[in-house]
Amino acid sequence: MPLPDHVTVSVPATTTNIGPGFDCLGAALSLRNHFTFTRLESSIEPVQILVSGLEAERVKTNETNLAYQAFSKLFHYLKQPPPLIRLDIRLGVPLARGLGSSATAIVGGLVGANVLAGSPLSEAELVAIAVEMEGHPDNVVPAMLGGCRLAATDLNGEWAIAPVTWHSDIVPVVAIPDFELSTAEARRVLPTEYSRADAVFNMGHLGLLLRGLETANPEWLRAALQDRIHQPYRRSLIPGYEQVEAAASSAGAYGLVISGAGPTLLALAHPDVAPIVTEAMKSAWEDQGFSVHAQALHLDPTGVSLHH
């Protein structure tokens, strides 16, 4: 069988943590980035990169591009030189906003490379390399597999990944402001140690969140979205957080959390009130002087998809 000479890899945005699920819980959302890899016969550069879509001018177009780094990493893993390629990137996921844009690049690069190499690696092997590149599983796992996923290590240090049932009466609403928050900065504000009380608080609330997502029980969801590991420390980095949270709550949302490392804020809402919650979050942030894009999304069930 000749190796494929091109493939388009489509990867969904993700929201992670979802309150108490810090670094282990994530869900794929209905926004996507597309990466098209085309093998070249000859080229002066190892890669030619063309980027279109949201904030395209901000994406690197040389060998330091994250999707290309992931692409190269997979070939090095296979002990093969990466082929000369053209990479066309079409962006639909905002950059550096807490919606997993870097995870889409890592997953897109690895999956694209695997296809061009003749698909030698399994999904589990690709997930393991993606987690190693990203540093934690919460974004790359749902980006690869779709749906809502909980990831934890097994006795051998391998990833055990459980699908989490997400009830159709729970709509994810995102409000994406026009300012950025780097993941590194969002990590810097976190303490290095936590009290036993905070650890127990988060364990209980994560368990309750999993049941809340499964049942859409409003009382459980309202209680479950509380967290003591990251949100109390990060909210100070997000101007307008309190106002947007209050607006979402008044509009009938189950609750509001920081999406990933922020600054995007995620509300969970019943379908009947999702449009009202969307508008309320947008207005509250605009009243603070920020321009913001807010929309009701849905869970992406498929994860990575390929178009040959």
Overview of this structure, please?
With 308 residues, the chain is of the alpha+beta class. Helix content is 36%, strand content 26%. The chain is built from ten helices and eleven strands. The chain has helices spanning 66-77, 101-116, 123-134, 137-145, 183-188, 196-215, 218-224, 231-234, 241-250, 274-287; strands at 6-17, 21-39, 47-53, 85-91, 148-153, 159-164, 171-177, 255-258, 265-269, 292-296, 305-307. The strands form two sheets. Strands 1, 2, 3, 4, 5, 6 and 11 form a seven-stranded mixed beta sheet that branches. Strands 8-9-7-10 form a four-stranded antiparallel beta sheet. The longest helix has 20 residues, at 196-215. It is globular and about 60 Å long.
**How many helical stretches?**
10
N→C terminal distance: 15 Å
Q: How many extended strands? A: 11
User: How can the largest sheet be summarized?
Assistant: 7 strands, mixed
Poorly predicted regions are none
Percent of sequence in beta strands: 25-35%
Helix content: 25-40%
Mean pLDDT: 96
For the record, the CATH architecture of the largest domain stands as: 2-Layer Sandwich
Gross morphology is: globular
The structural class is alpha+beta
Run of helices and strands: EEEHEHHHEEEHHHHHEEHEE
Radius of gyration: 20 Å
Helix-strand blueprint:
Layout: E1 6-17, E2 21-39, E3 47-53, H1 66-77, E4 85-91, H2 101-116, H3 123-134, H4 137-145, E5 148-153, E6 159-164, E7 171-177, H5 183-188, H6 196-215, H7 218-224, H8 231-234, H9 241-250, E8 255-258, E9 265-269, H10 274-287, E10 292-296, E11 305-307
Parallel strand pairs: 3-4
Antiparallel strand pairs: 1-2, 1-11, 2-4, 2-5, 5-6, 7-9, 7-10, 8-9
Helix pairs in contact: 1-2, 2-3, 2-4, 3-4, 6-7, 9-10
